[in-house]
Amino acid sequence: MNLLVRLRPAAFIAVLLVVWHIAVICQKVHLLPTPLAVARGIVELARHGLLIKYVVASLFRVTWGFVGAAILAIPFGLALGWRRRAGMALNPLIQIFRPISPLAWIPISILWFGVGDMAAIFLIFLASFLPLTVTAMNAVSSVSPVHINAARNFGLSQSQLVKIVLYPAVAPQLIVGLRITLGIAWLVVVAAEMIAVNSGLGFLIVDSRNAGNRYDLVVAGMVLIGIIGWLLDTGMRSFENIRSLRWGYSED
Amino acid sequence: MNQGARTTASWLQREENSGNRWHKVPMASIIAGPVVRKFAAPAAAPQKRVLKTKLRADAINMAFNRDGNPVQVLDAVDLDVGEGEFVCILGPSGCGKSTLLNIIAGFISPTSGQVRIDGKAVRGPDPRRIFVFQERGVFPWLTVEGNIGFGLFKLSKAERAERIAHYVKLVGLQGFEKAYPQELSGGMKQRLEVARALAVNPDMLFLDEPFGALDSITRLTMRRELLRIWQAERKTIVFVTHDIEESIQLADRVIVMSARPARIQRVVNIDIDHPRDISSRRYLELRDGIFEEIGLAHKV
Question: pLDDT tens digits for A28-45?
Answer without folding.
Answer: 787 888 898 999 999 999
